[in-house]
Amino acid sequence: MSEFLKGGISRRTMLKAGVATAGLLAMPAVLRAQEKSLKVGVYGGYFKKSFDNHIFPEFTKSTGIAVESIAEPTGEAWLVQLEQAARAGQAPADVSMMSQVATLKGQATELWTPIDISKIKHGGDLLDRFVNKYPDGRIAGIGAVAWFITLVTNTNVFKEAPTSWEALWDPANKDKLGLLALVSNSFLLEVTAKTFMGGTNALDTEEGLLKAFAKLAEVKPNVRLWYRDEAQFEQALKSGEIPMGQYYHDVTGLAAADGQPVRSTFPKEGGIQDSGNWVISRASKKAEEAHVFIDYMSQPSIQGLMSRKVGTAPTLKKDVLDLKPEEFAAVSSDIEPIIPRYDLYTTKSDWLNEKWTELIVG
Q: In total, how many domains does the chain have?
C-alpha cells in the first residue's frame, strides 16, 4: 500500500512541515507538455514524493500539462505566502492542497478563484463534505485527500476491540491512553459531542462548548500521554506501554500488517475524518489548466490510485470507486464519520486554546 507511509513520515507531519525543494517533473515526449504547465503545491517529504512518482506523471501523460510540484512550508505559512503573493499579482502555486481551516481563512480575503463545478466531470460524485463553499455558494475548494483518526489498541493488552469512544472515559483504562495534544488536531471536543451530546451541533454555542470541555476533562485520569510526536505514541502503543488512544487508521493498519500487536477500530460513533482541499490562487493565470487538474484528480480511477499508492481516503462516493473491499477498508469506513468543526477553529481559536490549556492539558 502506501509507500510514503512505509518511509515512516506521515502526511500529517508533512502538513506541518513541508521541507523538500520544488522540482520540475520530467516531461514526456509530447509537444503540448512544453506548451502547458501548472505549479501545484502539496505537503512535502514522502507525501510529495508519492505524488511525484505515482500521480503527477500520469496526469501529464493524460493531459499534456507538465506539473511543477512545490513543497508547502510549515502549517499556515503557505497561506500567508499565497496571500502576500496574490496582493502582488503573483502565484507561487496555481493549485494548492490546503487544510480545511486554511481554506476557510483564505475565503475571508477572496484568495481562492471559484471552481466551476460544471468543468469537474465527477463533481456530482463528490461527498458533500468535500465541497467547500464561500458563504454565497461559490465553490472555494474541492476535497483532494482525506484520512481518519480512530480508536487504536494494543492487542496483547486489549484482547477484544472496543466498540465506542466511551472506552476513553472507562475508569478501567486509567493511565492507559495516548491522545493528541492540541484542541485543533485532536478533535476530541467533536468526539465528546458525538458520543455524549447528540452530535457536533451541540458545539454551536459557548454553553455547549463548555459542557463538552467539562465532559472531556473527565478523561484526564486515564491519559498517560498528550502527544505531539506521532512516533513517540506509535512506539508506546506497539510496546503496550500506552495500550490505547487515538491515532491514524492507515499507519496503524500498516503496523498491524507488519506483525505489530496493534489494531485500529472505527467506533460506532465514527472515526474522525480530516482532509485537505484543492484550491486555486486568485493570482493564477492558469485557471483553465487548474480546472483540468482538479477534474483529473476527482476521477474515480485516480482517487483509487491515490488510496493504493498514497494511502489517502477517497473523497468520492463509494459506489463509483474501483477499490476492492479490503482496499477501501485500509483507508476508510462505511460508518458515518465525525467531521471536525473547522468553523470553530477560525472563529474561536484563541478562546478554544485558552480553555483547552486551562481545563484539559494544563
A: 2
